[in-house]
Request: fold
Amino acid sequence: MYYREQKPRGLAERAIGFARERVERRLSAHLEDRDPDYLREALPLLWLLSTFYFRAEVRDLGNIPADRPVLLVGNHSGGNIIVDTFIFSLAFSTYFGVERPFHQLAHNLAIAWPVAGEMLRKSGTVSASHEHAEQALKAGAPVLVYPGGDWETHRPSWRGNEIDFAGRKGFIRLALDAGVPIVPVVSIGGQETALFLSRGGGLARALRLDRLLRLKVLPISIALPWGLNIGDFAGHIPLPAKITIEVLPPIDLEREFGSDPDLDQVYDHVTAQMQEALDGLAAERRLPVIG
Amino acid sequence: MRINESTLVAAPPETVWNYLADPENYLHFMSGITHWEVTGDHANGLGARYRILLRVGAAEVGGLVEMVEWNEPFDIAWHSVTGVDNRGRFRIREQRPGRTRIEYRLAYGMVGGGIAGLLTEVAAVYPMRQQMRRTLRQLKRQVEHEQRRLETERRRAGRQRVGA
Reply:
């Protein structure tokens, strides 16, 4: 036994170790992976796409406190190609400067993508976990979370103007634990970047994807360049839908609901405020995609 | 990229200078501006710092700028400290008595942005030029209004002296 432990690792063992290391690296992202210089250099491309392709508008960034960490809570849209996140990152970075740390939480699979994953890491995305979010908030950075996650981002296009967090309340506990206010971020247009038909929740369960890959959905959509797109694992080319994002005033949970609030009450309050804002943005739109 | 626009105003250089030297006036004439905040120890003069944001396309761009020239009543120039690399200048020169030319120069760059950076610089020229022209139109209106107010004040003071 002693001999076996001291034995130098064989080629196969080292190859497996290397592969494991690579996979683990691919499936994780840390706060220190954020690279302000990369962000500064990526801003022109994001600005071009946001301005001319998505005719994006980001309103009321001044609602985000400039001097303290906050939990930004957004509605998730656009399948796996979440253009509103990129547009919001651009707006945040130009408004506050790339020097201000800013992190977003994303599913491990998004971070595992070969090129996009590296870009996400450098722009401050960390793998979605309560622990990562708490670390970022403690470090003084605003953190953007999408409680609806894959459930919300793959909702059918005709339900694009609905806030649907699927009853997930972890973000409230996170804000309470960290003692930071919640700032709702409401966006519209992402669900018009493809024709999303179904979440495919039953299909995901039948294929046991919820247990194997933490995926609750296997979405079905019609999207460029694939036509019928099942899973959206390789992403898609988003249609040039007009994206509008509105930042709502901060909600100080302790001041508004006390030190030990009822999570259901807070959840209803936050989602109702976001739904009201989303209804307002929907009322401004005249045509799908065009805006 | 460098953009240069100018206008002729019916006021002496001193009136133009006094108007431009007051940071509180910038929100009244700078087109597209969404944020103007004094961040340093002093409100104006050499070394004064401001956080400025302008809406250009999908983003509010700008950042921290510092005054690097304060040559009364001829030149005000600034350089960016953080945010998009830029430098700008208001050049104030008397054309003839009571008439002043104001030049507004702005140079900006997207260092390290590659082809996208170059495209962005070119794509931003048109909206930036339009904003600069609107800025100068508003500045001309404000300065000429200020000049009329000063002349009226002087006339009134003269009449009061004669009456006394």
Summary: Chain A has one domain: 2-193+238-284. The radius of gyration of chain A is 20 Å. Residues 167 and 267 of chain A are 8 Å apart (CA to CA).
